[in-house]
Write a structure and sequence with these properties.
The protein has six helices and five strands; from the N terminus they run E-H-H-E-H-H-E-H-H-E-E. The chain is α/β, with parallel strands linked by helices. The chain has one domain (2-125): Rossmann fold. It has a five-stranded parallel β-sheet with strand order 3-2-1-4-5. The radius of gyration is 14 Å and the shape is globular.
């Protein structure tokens, strides 16, 4: 299975937050699962941290993800263009980009955001 983690799920995973359902944590840890994180999530964390909306260190987060064997998914022009074709369920550009990336790269996007779940496959609601 190939998974892309939404920013919240990524943060929960890294912090050991109890909001991450045990079955989801198990799936992420499964050696047969390829887990991806988007550059857009690191960007979102960096911006929210700088604005004081989140307490996180984007540099430390990136290092940990790479050290743990997660695969970085860069933001490419075709990902950004694909956001235009998405219905306007969600206005958050970070979330729209994650949905577009998951569709184009054939990844299941794990999220706790009910609005993102409106996009259907490949978005998977957890929590």
């Amino acid at each position: 299975m190939r998974l892309l983690l939404d920013t919240h799920v990524l943060v929960w995973c890294l912090s050991g937050d109890r909001k991450l359902p045990p079955a989801t944590a198990e799936l992420i840890r499964d050696p047969a699962t390829d887990v991806y994180f988007s550059a857009v999530s690191i960007w979102e964390v960096a911006i929210k941290s700088a604005l004081g909306k989140m307490r996180a260190d984007a540099n430390a987060m990136l290092k940990y993800l790479v050290d743990e064997g997660f695969t970085e998914l860069p933001v490419m022009a075709r990902h950004t263009v694909a956001t235009v074709a998405l219905p306007m369920h969600h206005r958050d550009p970070f979330d729209r980009l994650l949905v577009a990336q998951s569709r184009l790269e054939s990844l299941r996007l794990l999220t706790n955001d009910k609005i993102m779940a409106l996009y259907g496959e490949p978005v998977v609601l957890v929590g």
